[in-house]
TrEMBL record:
Name under which the protein is recorded: Lipooligosaccharide transport system ATP-binding protein
Family that this chain belongs to: Belongs to the ABC transporter superfamily.
Record's keyword annotation contains Nucleotide-binding: yes
Membrane topology annotation: Peripheral membrane protein
Organism: Thermostaphylospora chromogena
Protein localization: Cell membrane
PROSITE patterns membership: ABC_TRANSPORTER_1, ABC_TRANSPORTER_2
Chief location category: membrane
Transport is among the record's keywords: yes
Amino acid sequence: MGSSLDGDAIRLTDVVKRYGDIVAVDHLNLDVPEGICLGLLGPNGAGKSTTMRMLTAQAVPDSGEISVLGFSLPRQAKQARARMGVVPQLDNLDEELTVRQNLEVFTHLYRVPKARRAEAVARALAIAQLTDRAGTKTADLSGGMRRRLLIARGLVHSPRLVLLDEPTVGLDPQVRQDLWSLISGLRDDGVTTLMSTHYIEEAERLADECALMSRGRVVARGAPEKLIKEHAGAEVHEHYGPPERLAEIEAVAHAHGFPTRRTGPSVSLLRAEQLPESLRDRLGPPSISRAPTLEDVFVLLTGETVE
């Protein structure tokens, strides 16, 4: 039987995955300690979903090593899958079955002992707040309820590790908030969670740590507040104006070592609290002074935008 290595539920070492000429995952190194929620944050095409597919052995790396709960993938994928829960991005529920029946099928697939199956289903229904919908056909559920059922299905065997691939994509804000409460409860129960997302607020709200991913690699990692302090400072100045003025502000800031990001008709100058008085006078007063965000960090490090 496998056991976690040095307290890590997941470890990827120098992992590469190519699709033809496209390098989807590029020498990725990533570890997920037991008991935390790690947010894998990045835009579409960053390599998040490919990483998730390799962790479930749906894709095999071209090189590198993957360990999940102490089991080497893909060789010991069966043992690892039996101990993890997976919530896919795409809805693959059986629409002809009821909510309860969908869960019962997975108690068999996960080999939950017969004497514990009813209890396991009841627990999963309660966690997902679907107890009163147990007899409803899946085809009749709303989008938010279907997503909750997917999460319940991934938890029906009380896994040590849960993989959430874009868990709230395509849902309206209120439903998203409800699911955030559900996912937060997993962390409170000590379940190790790896969650891929391209929603900044989702990562900030749920993750103990965030790994910012771009072009198949992790470009920064840490607690959200740590990443913000390290890369964006404590204050951001936003300057609005014509393109030539914005270009001038960028040139002056960069010449003095201050990072900026362009957003439509404005330039945001990061670490503005460190501006010397002479440079403040040269740049002029900002249109807006605000606190930095995780989005500032992501755009600064990757040059890409996220939601």
